[in-house]
Write a structure and sequence with these properties.
binds farnesyl diphosphate; Undecaprenyl pyrophosphate synthetase; alpha/beta
Length: 228
């Protein structure tokens, strides 16, 4: 059973190029697909959906493209709010969100507050997120506490961005690339991986069903010899 699904939403650019559209059109189509994925996740009984929307490295993309993505993030937080309330979706974010433009932060904070009591599905959007940055931020929080006692893994988790969210059971990466791209480096340690050639704007209930069927056929051992 997949309780927490993480997705690297890749391929917006290639989807657009193949259709003679602009990269911005690709990102727009990608943003629209988040609602489709969320509804499919709810139907499948998934409780947490973590989406890689903007990495710490994505700031290096051309200014115009960054602006389009930031605009889409604000728009998503505003226009999807009624749907989130209807469907019982709670919105959260992880990452260095203080780096985002004020408009995006304000729209996100409003939606996060409005949806905080919803509990059908939590959509956790990774924004200005890097797996290494998350670990470094955790270490710096520990240093700021002037802690001198040794720390173990269980306690360390409390310094990560979302300590209360269980680790992902499954990671889906769209559009064929076989890498983690600095996503959830700590949390994905024992997650199952599924890569589909489908571009993110084409991701739908069927793509999710295929990934969940693949997950269902695997034996998770968490490093042990548990045959179940
Ligand atoms: C990868 O496509 C996708 C991203 C840069 C992140 C995903 C962004 C969205 C789905 C849109 C906005 C997000 C929200 C939360 C509203 P790419 O440009 O790397 O594609 P390519 O590899 O084909 O060029």
């Amino acid at each position: 059973m997949v309780n927490h699904l993480a997705i690297i939403m890749d391929g917006n650019g290639r989807w657009a190029e193949e259709r003679g559209l602009t990269r911005s059109d690709g990102h727009k189509a990608g943003a629209r697909q988040i609602g489709v994925a969320a509804r499919a996740a709810i139907k499948a009984g998934i409780k947490y959906l973590t989406l890689y929307a903007f990495s710490t490295e994505n700031w290096k993309r051309p200014k115009d493209e960054v602006a389009v993505l930031m605009g889409l993030i604000s728009e998503f937080a505003k226009s999807e709010l009624p749907n989130m309330m209807r469907d019982g979706v709670r919105l959260r974010t992880i990452g260095r969100t203080a780096d985002l433009p004020l408009a995006a932060r304000t729209a996100l904070e409003f939606a996060i507050k409005q949806t905080e009591k919803n509990d059908t599905l939590t959509i956790n959007i990774a924004l200005s997120y890097g797996g290494r940055a998350e670990i470094v931020d955790a270490v710096n929080k520990i240093i700021a506490e002037k802690r001198t006692a040794p720390i173990d893994e269980k306690e360390f988790v409390n310094y990560l961005y979302a300590p209360d969210i269980p680790d992902p059971d499954l990671l889906i990466r769209t559009s064929g690339e076989l890498r983690l791209s600095n996503f959830l480096l700590w949390e994905l340690s024992y997650s199952e991986l599924y890569v589909t050639n489908t571009y993110w704007p084409d991701f739908d209930e069927n793509t999710l069903a295929e990934a969940l069927a693949s997950f269902g056929s695997r034996k998770r051992r968490f490093g042990g010899l548990n045959k179940k």
